[in-house]
């Protein structure tokens, strides 16, 4: 039987879940794939923590593992871009297959790592790096390999989707929902990466690169997170028939690839609107097969470990095969372009004084900028500021920016900066 | 560059779409996969119809293609189980990779074909046989290969989902909606395979076999279609918060595998409820990664052809590789078991006379069989029969059968056979 010797780097939540899965599935993998997965050694910062949990030798020296000649495959679950980078680089240089769940590493250092992988022929699997248990990487590489993608987008960060769900369902403010996510282990002590959209940005960049076979760098993305969203906007959007989701969106046209992350009002009848809690979803549109969507658990030790193990199995079956084409990650750079002159729609919440004629003044400015109003909502209020909520029809991004600048300086009627959130565009 | 020589059998809607896709993608496939796909010959019943549409030699002799020693891969798009069976059998015996979109063939003849494939090492790809453009076969084989499946189910027949959508949205009766589907080319002149659930049965059997790695035969399925559904039931279910979908459902427990096809009331907040028109969806639940769902176009020439082409690419990269484990289709037979004694729920529509006390008599019978009522709906009516609609709480299948037998013989109050439709069970 083919034996594949594995070195595991990192033994946190995902790493220890993977240890369980490997134990449980060893015999099944032998039976179904004719492969004996042999976990040879584990490297972790605190080897003592694994005492009694495994019979596999444990070390704290990562590079001693990636340099071992008797290891075929390195599974990197350290995270971050420092030690993980050195380890993955070393493993690829040594010709070892690398399986990683590290989206930050690939997003920030992929352009350095992919050429090494291409040179030594070491394959690089990263199913677990994007959208947890959703097998979107395999789907892009194999399942939909014949398709020409026009759009790929999705809910790619479980933490922020959980926070948005709680802000809606419990009417909590942002900080209460964040605290809950931290208590449940869904959010880090420093939540910046998640809540500011950086993690989603890393992921949509990786997905767009694979879907379009053009490299979409993180630097080319515009990224906006959810930390300034208010419960009031989430509830108001809902009453207008929309749910606010943090979406990563990438669209390809003849002008190039437009990729971005921002909170978005999604119509309730769109399938992305009904993806709740820590679930993730990837929505795509192709020329040949129209649109489709995959949903699943986006976070958690076991869902992520199962994606790692599926990757291990896939690349283990390919390991040592000389006559199979290696997978490609070296795509030409995509031509990024800023928001084009397409018509976009906005949800606008104006915080105004409570006096007659305010709505007339606002709508005059909007009208001068060719922005027409689709719906207006103003609830009775006993204190200022009064919230006037407008959902617009389509206009250009430029006209919106100009009109909001103008309105926000009308100090006789406007009490606070206007909140503007994009509606989901036609995908 | 690796050259893969292909023989195409069948040049109907999917076949001619595939010809277009092959032409359009040839250069891209060379660039991305290092494979030159060479369409060598086409076999079709009416070679004349292809005149002017292709430069590839055309024949009407299927076996002359499968017997050619210079062909590596056969793409079978003939359909049915007669000529297609002979052709696929011949191709596999000759050691050629076979790509097929033919679920009936695999469902009815798979147990004869798989051993030939295993013996000669010829691989068999059938992504396009199930759920059109949804890459569920690759997902089960690779993307979720580490997962232990508990449930797989879905909307697997585009024709019936289109008919159900029209019956709801246009309030059409079944035969009007079927006619429309036939006019649009979504339904065959003889729609039996689709509307009686046979096609969905073939597909859920194939999916269950792959998900559980146990062979689920079509003979072990219970299958019920949509041809006796009435618009009234679709509208009534909707007003109660459910949408009626034709689901293929397969569940695995220690007792065995339960697989079936029947119309099902799906709660509107379940993701399967919002899959409309000719779209398909596959919902699954695994021990490691909880639940997930994939949606996409379930029918149509181009979506199906794109699934065929993705399969061609996948198996072309593996062709000729001696040291890669062949995929397995030879699973041990699943222990099938009938509906267990779990509690199930029903939507019941009683057609009754218009007199006092009817509901009391019905609910007495239900009560004697331990069936309690969750909700009742009776609209004012000017003519008999009156429709009394009951949604029940959970009871055993046996108790339902007994109580309905009893009620339907109460000729003083019941005018027509009671309509009983299952609610979606806890998955």
UniProtKB/TrEMBL annotation, chains A, B:
GO MF term set: homoserine dehydrogenase activity; NADP binding
Enzyme class label: oxidoreductase
Ligand binding (NADPH): 103
Biological process, per Gene Ontology: methionine biosynthetic process; threonine biosynthetic process
Binding, NADP(+): 9-16
Annotated EC: 1.1.1.3
Catalytic reaction equation(s): L-homoserine + NADP(+) = L-aspartate 4-semialdehyde + NADPH + H(+)
Name of a matching Pfam family: ACT
The protein's name in its UniProt record: Homoserine dehydrogenase
């Amino acid at each position: 039987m083919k034996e594949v010797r594995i070195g595991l780097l990192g033994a946190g939540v995902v790493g220890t879940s993977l240890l369980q899965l490997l134990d449980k599935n060893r015999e099944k993998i032998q039976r179904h794939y004719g492969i004996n997965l042999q976990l040879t050694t584990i490297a972790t910062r605190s080897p003592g923590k694994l005492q009694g949990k495994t019979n596999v030798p444990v070390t704290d020296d990562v590079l001693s593992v990636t340099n071992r000649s008797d290891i075929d495959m390195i599974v990197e679950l350290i995270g971050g871009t420092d030690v993980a980078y050195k380890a993955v680089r070393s493993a690829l240089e040594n010709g070892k297959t690398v399986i990683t769940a590290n989206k930050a590493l690939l997003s920030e250092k992929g352009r350095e790592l992919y050429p090494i992988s291409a040179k030594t022929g070491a394959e690089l699997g990263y199913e677990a790096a994007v959208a947890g248990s959703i097998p979107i990487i395999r789907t892009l590489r194999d399942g939909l390999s014949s398709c020409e993608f026009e759009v790929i987008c999705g809910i790619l960060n479980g933490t922020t989707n959980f926070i948005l769900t709680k802000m809606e369902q419990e009417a909590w403010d942002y900080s209460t929902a964040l605290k809950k996510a931290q208590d449940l282990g869904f959010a880090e002590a420093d939540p910046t990466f998640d809540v500011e959209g950086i993690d989603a940005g890393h992921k949509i960049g990786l997905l767009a690169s694979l879907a379009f076979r053009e490299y979409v760098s993180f630097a080319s993305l515009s990224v906006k997170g959810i930390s300034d969203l208010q419960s009031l906007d989430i509830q108001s959007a809902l009453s207008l028939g929309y749910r606010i989701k943090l979406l990563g969106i990438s669209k390809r046209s003849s002008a190039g690839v437009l990729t971005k992350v921002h909170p978005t009002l999604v119509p309730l009848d769109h399938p992305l609107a009904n993806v709740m809690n820590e679930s993730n979803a990837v929505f795509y549109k192709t020329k040949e097969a129209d649109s489709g969507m995959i949903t699943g658990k986006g976070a958690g030790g076991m869902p992520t470990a199962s994606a790692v193990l599926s990757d291990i199995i896939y690349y283990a079956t390919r390991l040592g095969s000389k006559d199979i084409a290696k997978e490609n990650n070296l795509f030409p750079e995509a031509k990024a372009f800023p928001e084009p002159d397409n018509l976009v729609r906005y949800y606008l919440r104006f915080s105004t004084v409570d006096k007659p004629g305010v709505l007339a003044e606002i709508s005059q400015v909007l009208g001068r900028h060719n922005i027409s109003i689709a719906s207006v909502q103003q609830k009775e209020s006993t204190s200022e500021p009064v919230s006037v909520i407008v959902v617009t029809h389509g206009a250009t991004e430029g006209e919106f920016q100009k009109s909001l600048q103008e309105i926000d300086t009308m100090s006789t009627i406007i009490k606070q900066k206007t909140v503007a959130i994009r509606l989901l565009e036609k995908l």
